[in-house]
Inverse folding.
């Protein structure tokens, strides 16, 4: 049974995961291995039932990360201006044959979309912030004791 579960995970990783268009939320948030990789290692190491328990905990964490990222991304998506056409479209007439009427409205397009994507903190900044919060909590606990 363990071999069948491991084979199913590998088939998922090889054929299904690359086509679904998104990654494990926990992996994206923390930079660690994804849920399917952790599930494979846990089942291989602890057996089917023990590995399923470990994977269940990880899937709960992944669900929390997904909910957090979804809330943030929905706010950001409204601010990104993703539907704005890029600012490097040539509008000199010769190259703009397929852009009928688009070049007329480019004057009102906000071209700072690249700056907007750089507003979010980097992975290292998020790690540093989490480390600072942990250290602050540790200091508070030491003061209480």
């Amino acid at each position: 049974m363990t071999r069948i579960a491991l084979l199913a995970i590998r088939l998922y990783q090889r054929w299904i995961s690359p086509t679904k268009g998104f990654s494990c939320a926990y992996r994206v948030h923390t930079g660690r291995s994804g849920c399917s990789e952790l599930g494979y290692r846990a089942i291989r190491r602890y057996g089917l039932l023990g590995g399923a328990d470990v994977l269940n905990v990880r899937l709960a964490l992944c669900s929390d990360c997904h909910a957090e990222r979804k809330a943030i991304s929905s706010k950001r998506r409204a601010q990104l201006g993703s539907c704005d056409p890029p600012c490097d479209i040539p509008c000199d007439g010769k190259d703009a044959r397929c852009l009928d009427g688009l070049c007329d409205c480019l004057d009102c397009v906000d071209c700072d979309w690249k700056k907007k994507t750089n507003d979010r903190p980097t992975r290292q900044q998020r790690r540093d912030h989490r480390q600072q919060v942990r250290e602050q909590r540790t200091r508070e606990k030491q003061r209480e004791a």
